[in-house]
Specification:
The chain is mostly helical. The protein has 3 helices and 2 strands.
Length: 135
Amino acid sequence: MSDPTHAKPAHADSHAAPTEVDHAGDMNLPMIATVMVVSFIVVAVAVIGTEAMFAMVENDELQTKSLAQPNQALIDLKSKQIKNIDSYRWVDAKAKTVAIPIDRAMELVLAERATAAAKAEAHADAVAATQASPE
């Protein structure tokens, strides 16, 4: 029989060879993180590229469908407006109101302002001369 007084203490086997630990089931965290980052970058590039291609195709379609074809209503309106500002015409024949070309109207306004300024200057000179002369 074994004698309990001669039992080996627990620390007696501490000099024994360490047991092998199986690391085959451990996760490779750096590899997982790298795969996640690369996957995120690939998805982000795909989304941004798809968005850019969509914007480009949308712009091409807009050019083709609307901007490339002239709007006849706008062309007619612009032509009518140019005709109205570049010609003499009756606005109201009963009231004897006429429209004149815009260039001629600007010339008349400038001449009228110049005449009014000259009259105002002559009046100011006359007033100054009257006040300066002794009575």
